[in-house]
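Hi R.,

Here's the chain you asked about this morning:
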Amino acid sequence: MEDLDVQPLPSLRTINRILARHGLTHRRTGRYRPKGKAYPTLLAATANAVHQLDYLGPCYLHGPVRFWSLNTVDVATARCATEPVRSRAGQATIDALWATWGRLGLPAAVQADNEWAFAGSPAHPRALGPLIRLCLGQGIEPWFIPPGEPWRNGIVEKFNDHYRAKFLARVEVTDFAALGPASRAFEQRHNSRWRYTKLGGLTPLAALRRERPALRFPRRERAPRVPLGKPEAGRYHLVRFIRSTRRLDVFGEQFRLPPEAEYEYVVATIDVARQRLRVTLGEDLIEEIPYHLR
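And the predicted structure, written out as tokens:
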């Protein structure tokens, strides 16, 4: 809330008391146990089919260095990219994504949570946040996981733990200028030395060499400047769990869904060219409405 320059009306003690009353002050422990509901998981069989990304922070190193790290993992090869930023403002996020794609290559899809740095302001749900605009301009489809379910981005969340243990807890950096080279060195060590069971004991770079994919990279070195233009084509998707109210939340805007959506995961797809919102349950289209972007 401080990042959004919003001052909460209740006191912190009142907020803490309400959260404790509802059992929301403790992090989930142990393995996630699925609810038995089908979840629309993205397939990532090849390099750069899906990138999972997440902002970790604020982070602190030895010395007065406060920053966020935009961490990205290619799901198929486990290659990582880490980009430290002073803030999560629009241009900083765009610069970090552009630098990430300059090293990993452009993905077919990115998967992220719903924080404002990616989705945009909840006051303007149809304005398209910086992540959406940048991705659609590069032919990438953004996917947003359900709010309150960070384990849906489990690969990058697990990498964040690795980053905390192997980088934040060990590296000594006293100014932001030195943070970038230190972050790149950590990234290179991970990609060239860390071996994964799911890769058959290969390192991420060895898995990439084995696959020999035709990677696609940004056409220019410098990232686009804000404000980015409004895309004219492309699609972005939101995965949402629909409760008994049958309300679909699209970045704060509510839509009523038919009864078959109750207690199910649905995919809300915004088609920019057609200005339509399509809602699917599995392979079935259950709702389609006009959705005019601003």
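Residues 176-193 form the longest helix (18 residues).

Let me know if you need anything else.
M.
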